[in-house]
Amino acid sequence: LVTALMDAYKSVTGDFLTEPMITAGATYARAFDGHVAFGMNFPGVPSSEHQINERINIPLWLQAAQIYREAFKRLCGTF
């Protein structure tokens, strides 16, 4: 699962150096066996989630959509 998600990230971004990361944040993924959280924290980009003036970088948001699309294709076996 993690390999497929990272392969989707790598194929869209061309970033083959970044490794998967674990955060202390709570997600519903921890309530289920065999699930992981997969989000759009990009390396070197400050995050603002759950903070005053939470915002998103639109070009990165669009890139994240491409990554999610690629991930769905890989996970559904349509790659």
Order of helices and strands: HH
Query: Percent of residues in helical segments?
Result: 25-40%
- Counting helices, strands and paired strands, the structural category is mainly alpha
**Overall pLDDT:** 89
Described by the principal axes of the CA atoms, the overall outline is globular
Individual helix count: 2
Largest beta sheet, briefly? none
Query: What distance lies between the first and last C-alpha atoms, to the nearest angstrom?
Result: 14 Å
> Which value, in Å, is the CA radius of gyration?
13 Å
Approximately how much beta-strand content do the residues carry?
Answer: under 5%
Number of strands: 0
Low-confidence stretches: none
Question: How would you sum up this structure in a few lines?
Answer:
38% of the residues lie in helices and 0% in strands.
Please give a structural write-up.
- The chain is an all-alpha fold and 79 residues long.
- Helix content is 38%, strand content 0%.
- It contains 2 helices and no strands.
- The chain has helices spanning 2-13, 58-75.
- The longest helix is centred in the last third of the chain and has 18 residues, at 58-75.
- The model has no long low-confidence stretch (mean pLDDT 89).
Keywords summarizing the entry:
0% strand, 2 helices, single chain
